[in-house]
Design a protein that fits this description.
Radius of gyration: 21 Å
Number of helices: 13
Structural class: mainly alpha
Largest sheet: none
Strand content: under 5%
Number of domains: 1
Helix content: over 70%
Shape: globular
Number of strands: 0
Length: 305
């Protein structure tokens, strides 16, 4: 291994330690203090501390990014903090359209699987200008969530992924980076975030599903970041992803009966169609991500011949 790669590995290890350790410590302390899984609790007094844990936890990858650059004297080149809006506008547009599209498709698929005789019009009777306006406001309000989303993205896509892509082929880097990102969520998953604690295979099946979700999302977010050379499209997708979930779509457009039916679907089970749909997004993203590299290799081989 060359000295440059050894330095990259060193920086990556420092970054990951700073990203991972505080979350495990915080969840362990809070769980010990409250005496129950944080995200599966019915104790109202725990809501604010848990919310703050999530917000500050999302900032840790960016903190790790910053500290690693300072400690290892890396400097601040190639930070992905520029906007570069005029170039690659298609990818900026995709950061808005794609999350809305896969959220809507997932809602439709969940209806198709779990409709139990309920028609589409009975499930979503509230599709009118008023509810569309509410949904647009929900999209606009995602800007508020951009700050914590940036906290994760500047760490994962702005630092971890470029380092992994220095060390291994892009498809492998996307896989490894997605697993790392999924495992970073493990303390929250164990504490009941996303899936609760009462499901088959708890907590390992939940951690596994989270890793799968993070792998396919990682492909799309890495594509956006690499093509635009900016972290903001990925951060916006992350914010939209947290603010435009299927449950929100059902709450805005769905009937009360549909909401009750949707709420009754076990969380891990509801995630499977979501991950399946996102897999298509991930595969297409990976193709676009490696397409340019493949063309360059073919061009280099042609010149060599």
């Amino acid at each position: 291994m060359s000295n440059n790669k050894k330095l990259t590995v060193k920086r990556l290890i420092i970054f990951l330690l700073i990203s991972f350790v505080p979350g495990w410590i915080a969840v362990t302390i809070m769980w010990s203090y409250y005496g129950e899984p944080l995200y599966a609790s019915t104790n109202e007094s725990i809501a604010v501390p848990v919310y703050l844990l999530g917000v500050f936890g999302m900032m840790m990858p960016s903190v790790a990014h910053l500290i690693t650059r300072l400690v290892t004297k890396e400097g601040f080149k190639n930070t992905y903090l520029g906007l570069h809006i005029k170039c690659k506008m298609g990818y900026w547009t995709a950061s808005l359209i794609v999350p809305i599209a896969y959220s809507a498709i997932t809602a439709f698929v969940l209806w198709a699987i779990y409709n139990d005789g309920m028609s589409l019009s009975e499930t979503f009777p509230n599709v009118n200008m008023q509810t569309v306006g509410i949904y647009i406001f929900q999209i606009a309000s995602s800007v508020i969530l951009l700050f914590p989303a940036f906290g994760e993205e500047w760490g994962w896509r702005g630092y971890m992924m470029p380092k992994l892509m220095e060390l291994m082929p892009k498809p492998v880097a996307v896989l490894v980076g997605g697993v790392i990102w999924g495992l970073w969520h493990a303390p929250l998953t164990i504490a009941g975030h996303n899936f609760g604690v009462e499901y088959p295979g708890y907590p390992f099946s939940g951690i596994g599903l989270m890793c799968l979700l993070c792998i396919v999302m990682n492909a799309f977010l890495t594509l956006l970041t690499e093509k635009t050379k900016s972290i903001y499209p990925a951060a916006f997708v992350h914010a939209l992803n947290n603010n435009l979930s299927c449950s929100i779509m059902f709450a805005i457009f769905g009937s009360e009966a549909a909401m009750m039916k949707f709420a009754g679907i076990p969380s891990p089970e509801a995630f499977v169609p979501y991950i399946a749909i996102l897999s298509f997004v991930g595969i297409i993203s990976l193709i676009f991500l490696i397409k340019k590299d493949k063309a360059k290799k073919e061009e280099a081989l042609g010149k060599a011949a």
